[in-house]
Amino acid sequence: MQKFFSNKKLIALMIALLVSLGLIAGSMYASNNRNTPPFIQRIANDVVGIGGRLVAIPGDFARNGLDDINNLLDTFQENQRLKSQLDNLAQTKVQVQTLKRENKQLKTQLKLNGTLTDYSQISAAVILRTPSDWRNMVVINQGSAAGVKKGMPVMAGSGLIGRVVEVNRTNAKVEMLSTANKSSDRIAAAVETKGDKEVNGIITGYDEKSGDLILGELNTDTDIKKGDDVVTSGLGGMTPKGLLIGKVASVKKDDYGLANSVYLTPAASLNDVTVVTVISRTIAGD
């Protein structure tokens, strides 16, 4: 208690407040008393007005402060709501883009299936593709129960992407054309030249930098040009003849002018595969 009253500034403030209240009270009494001279009443009214404003200042300040706090809280809540809406919008946009891409791939696959009426077809979806084995293998959701057999070719988009190498009852592994496995059973292919000649070879590799497949094991003086179609030759295995693999991008010749390797652009995207069609060599209806 002694420390409290030892503060001179606080004591002065309390005295000033008491005096102000006393003046206001006295002024109100004087202004309401009819016997008070008019001059004194005017002074009393002025004092009451000034005192009322002085007393109202803290209340107005507190009220305005509360209004500002409420406005700040409203602004914060509105900001949070807008951020949530933006997050939802971004997620929706991603979902729409994904659905559009999948829809486009499904339409392309349906168009491809419509051109393969001479063969039995098994539609499937890719369920696994690991980053460490990205260029080598994919796993599809159809297996022996759906009629998938080892060695069957697999297409996506508008071209061949690989061949079935392992079959389980409900899924199967597909080895990609871009595989780095040197011991893999390679696809036999043929270049269809503009002169109605076929140049046979084997898909021997994949150029990661250009994304081109390499057709090797051929030595020919036949004029192979950029843009010529490369299709399966149907020689050996369960792969039928005439499935599109890609188009010639460039030709590498040896010192004698003979073509010994052809680089071709794949007809199907080997990096973006979600739906595929497994092809049976058996003619539909047999």
Automatic annotation (TrEMBL):
Task: Fetch the InterPro entries from UniProt.
Answer: Cell/Rod_1 (IPR042177), Cell/Rod_MreC_2 (IPR042175), MreC (IPR007221), MreC_beta-barrel_core (IPR055342)
Which key words are in the record?
Cell shape, Coiled coil
Q: Does the keyword Coiled coil apply?
A: yes
- Pfam families for the chain: MreC
Q: What NCBIfam families does the entry give?
A: mreC
What Gene3D superfamilies does the database record attribute to this sequence?
Answer: Rod shape-determining protein MreC, domain 1 (2.40.10.340), Rod shape-determining protein MreC, domain 2 (2.40.10.350), Single helix bin (1.20.5.490)
**Family per similarity comment:** Belongs to the MreC family.
Top-level taxonomy: Bacteria, Bacillati, Bacillota, Bacilli, Lactobacillales
Tell me the ranges covered by the Rod shape-determining protein MreC beta-barrel core domain, including all copies: 126-279
**What are the record's GO terms for cellular component?**
plasma membrane
* Coiled-coil intervals, chain numbering: 72-109
The protein's job, in short, is:
Involved in formation and maintenance of cell shape.
Q: Tell me if Coiled coil is a UniProt keyword of this record.
A: yes
Q: What name goes with this protein? A: Cell shape-determining protein MreC
Name its GO BP terms in alphabetical order. Answer: regulation of cell shape
